[in-house]
Each structure stands twice: as structure tokens, then as C-alpha cells.
Amino acid sequence: MTDKHDLIQPDRGQPATALHLVSKDGFADWAKRLNAGQRAALAAQKFEGAGYETAIVPDGDGWFAVGGVANPGALSSWCLARLAEVLPAGTYRLEEDAPGPALLGWVTAQYRFDRYRSEAPDEAPRVLVTKEVKAIAPALAEAAATELVRDLVNTPAEDMGPAELEAVATALAKAHRAELHVTKGDLLERDYPMVHMVGRAAGRAHAPRLIELEWGDPTHPRVAVIGKGVCFDSGGLDIKPSSAMLLMKKDMGGAAHALALAQLIMQAALPIRLHLLIPAVENAISGNAFRPGDVLRSRAGLSVEIGNTDAEGRLVLGDALARAGELKPALVIDFATLTGAARVALGPDLPAMFARQDATAEALLAAGTACDDPCWRLPLWSGYRDYLKSDVADLNNSPSNGFAGTIAAALFLDRFVPDGVDWAHFDTFAWRPVAKPGRPKGGEALGLRAAWHMLRGRFGA
Length: 461
What we know:
The protein is of the alpha/beta class. It is built from 15 helices and 20 strands. Helix 5 (about 135-155) packs antiparallel against helix 10 (about 255-265), helix 11 (about 315-325) packs parallel to helix 14 and helix 13 packs across helix 15 (about 450-460).
């Protein structure tokens, strides 16, 4: 996993290579300040100031670097990311405008998941020197949270099961003096029956558990953060094909997001009473696996007929949502790699977001746009509630008509959130299939920073 590096430093006049940012529109005027040899060097590298273009320019006995951006005065989170990926290792000082949000991309671009590689990394880091001292700590905190999601999702299931998720929560609790409570194995059967039923086939080695962390002043507004922790999803008896199972180590991506958001909240001492809940299971196959047609009890008192054992995430989330709602939270946010239908509708980059209250949805959308972590709202369309009808139980976990799978899953979760509770749900992919600057292929935080910036705007001191 990625070691923590001091990749951004306050400017104290330390030696650093100059780094210039130029737009395509401003390139011609900027290039007039250069000598003929420097312009020739740029031409040889086909640098014209377009986004993500980079070049190294000779300057006396040394050199400086230049990167193309759309607007040097309004940098996005990814404007410096390509530079951080391709420049030689060393220390750089941005010569023109302040980096602003682009500090994040400078760090996340240098993420490497190297836990299983035998060879040691052979490249030293690239360090950015900036006068924006107040922006350094928030950028590093968000980068660390993003990299936590990446590390957890990239780790295969044998090394990232329910016990390992508990260990991460334990470390967070210890670091921030939070309270931790874990209900595990057969003890789940009474209070969290759906978590127990989904996870029991994995046996003792990967025993299911409900992980709860509480932190903060009890007099502050209570905010519940919930993450789907299905550490591997075989599909159960409705087994997935092998091609669909390849990426199922990432099915605990919701839990990774929830843990990372909890880390951000506690590090910043946000004035809330945090309630983190992670139902951690492996959806395995054995003689005691739950079956299609079974009827499950739930913590909320609703009975659920199993239409498909591969729709297990909504079951474990149902018990967690019910538990969170009992404590009368001001807000509940959950993250889950819940449906393939969300990816069909929105692709890999956009998490589907649902919210009961328009104001909460609008705040999440605005925060995501502002911090370059966009999401897209889908409706909790009540007309599709009939899709969840069962002939023998209160609900069916998997409609068979094939329509509106993402909305139907959200409506299922909605039944486990008490009336009147402000609730938002992210159906996120937690994976990047194709690398982009600052965003390598693999596990990814999608919706994390949108939620964090919304919470900071709503509850910040």
C-alpha cells in the first residue's frame, strides 16, 4: 500500500524547479518571453498549452517545467495531476497562480498499490512547494481518505474480509478515541438477522459482523454513515459467472467509503455525533447458504422473500439502516456498490445518488461539482414500489421484471429508514476501469468528497 509522503510543503524559499502553467489561448503570448532555443524545445515536444500537455524547457544550466491547463487562474482537482505523474522526481514550485484544489490531484496522481509487488519502488516522489499553506492540510486529508478507499478496495478478499474491515475500524477508533462495538457470528441472529443470514455460509474464518463506531459530543447532531461491507460476492446460490466475479473484491467499496468519510470527520473534529455502521459479510456458498425463496426476518420487523441471493447488499444494509434510524439521526448517508443497473445508466464515473429531501440532494450535487467529485440524482419514484411486492412476505429483495434496478434497490432500502429521517444513498462503482490523470485504474473513491464537502458545509463550525 502507498506510504504517506510529505508531497506538499509550505514555501520557505527552499530550492525547487520552477513549474509554469499555460493555457492554449495564452500560449503564444507566454512563449514570446522565451528565447529561440526554449521555443524550439517546446515545439520539439509538441507543446501548445492544451490540457494535460507537459514539457521540460532548458534554462541556462538547468530547466523548468510547463503544463497545459484550461485556465491557470481556476485550477480543477486534476490540473496538476499529469505533471505529478510524468515529471522527474524532485521538488517543484508553481510560479504563477495558487494551486487551489489542484493540490489533491498532485498527491493522488502519485498513488501506487504495491502491497504484493516484490520489487521495491524505484522512483522518488515529486514534491510541490506552495504559498497556500492553509490549503495543504485539507488537501492531504482528502488525499489520504481517497487513498484509504483505493487501498481497501484494491486488496483481495483473502486479505480484506470482515475481520480486516473490523481491524481498520478498530484502528480509527483508537486513533480518535471513539467507541467501537462489534456484533459477530451467531450473536447477529437475534438483532441483525439479515446480516447473519447473508454471511453465515462463509464460516468462522470470515464470520459476518455488524461494526459500529460512535464518536463526538452526544449533544451535537447525530449523523449516521453506513457502508456496504460485502467483502466478496460470489452471488450465493444464484452464483455469478466467473467474469462477473473477477472484481467482487470491490463489493466492500461502500464500507471503504464510509470508513474514509469517518476518518475525515474525526480528523477535522466536525461538530457532529458520528455513528458509523458497517455490515461486513462474505456472500459465500455452502450447505447453510440462504436460498432463493427463503423468507428472512429483519431488524425492522419486515419480512423479506429472497428473489435472488445475488441481491444481498440491500439485505445487510437494511438491518444497518434500521439500527441507525432507531437513534433518531439528523442525517443518514450510506454508500454501496449496489447495482449493475447504476453503471448501465450512468457509467463508471458517476455515482447514482438518491435523497429523500431536495435540499440534501441539491447540497450533495453542488458540493460534488465544486470539488470535482460529481454525482447524479435518481428519483425515489414511488410508482415502482410495486416491483418489491411478494406473494408471501412484506417485500421481495429482487424484482424479476428487469426494470429500474437501481431505483428498485433504493426503494427497498427506503423501507428500512424510519419516516421523517433525512437520508441519502450513494450507489457507487468504487472502481476506475481506465486511468485518468490523478486517478489510476483500480479502486476509487466516487462520491466520498461530495459527501464530505456537503457535511462540512452543513455542520462545520
